[in-house]
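request received
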Amino acid sequence: MAQAVSVVEVSARIERAATLEELKDIRTEWVGKKGRLTEEMKILGKLSPDQRRTRGAELNQVREAILSALNAREEVLKDRAERQVLETERVDLTLPGREPISGLLHPLTRVRRRIEDIMLRMGYSLAYGPQIDSEWYNFEALNMPADHPARDMQDSFFVDVPGLVLRTHTSPVQIRSMQRHQGRLPVKITAPGLAYRRDDDATHVPVFQQVEGLVVDRNISLGNLLGTLKMLIHELLGENVGTRFRPSYFPFTEPSVEMDVACAACGGDGCRVCKDTGWVEVLGSGVVHPTVLKSGGFNPDEVSGFAFGLGIDRIAMRLFGLDDLRLLYQNDLRYLARFQSGQGGSLS
Ligand code: PHE
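response:
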């Protein structure tokens, strides 16, 4: 009988089905709405009552057999799929955990601390002032009255409150420190901190770091300043680094001196770091102007002093051999981490 053969054939196909999809195809082909068996059943009506009864019973048997074979195989395949999922998704408890990233000091912080260290060894104490300061501390007290053209040297960020400014340098801490000393000598402070200017290029960022130095005592001279600066820079960058002093102008010092170090990026040939001069300016300094001593409550006829302001970022650029300062401020850990292992620079 044709159907008997079919059952054997279909059962064999069902047994061979390797996936649930394959099984579903067989189900549709045979017992689906338009399946082969379903079609057979539809024509039962055209047979005589006798034929219909035998044929009907036969078809029902076949249908039952196919359905139970399909269901049995489905069980097996589902079970297999489940076991496979369990197998592949098993959590391996023996894997070592992910190591958490431990914090690192920012390269600029390490440079700042190194400068502080040298200053402390030279007998200075640390001093601090506010980053939002009054125009008086930032300018007036430093001999820069409101209409003084020297204010243009330090393009400033003003805040909404009149009379306040984001300090353009750490020099206002000079005044605050002298005031705190109330005339007692000597004043010997160093003031690290952030300063703000409307600058933005490869060697200037709008928020930058300085270290201020101030000494006030009897008989302090330009010689003391130059000696101190040489010592500081040599401690910081090495005995062999090329340095030079240039006369300069700051309203709060007289005379004023800028210190340059030989450009490490190009070795003196000229490049974008040193603006083709072979030298990079690292600090401004000078003998404290009498007006500034007066602002701090000292008598310029009795005492004198020297002051300097060092750019931490410039020193960092040199120590790490960078040609763009801005990268240090983007806080990309992949970049900053390079400076930890010594690969990116020489800071120990
Ligand atoms: N404050 C000056 C600047 O930021 C640097 C400086 C400090 C110059 C102290 C002289 C004395 O440019």
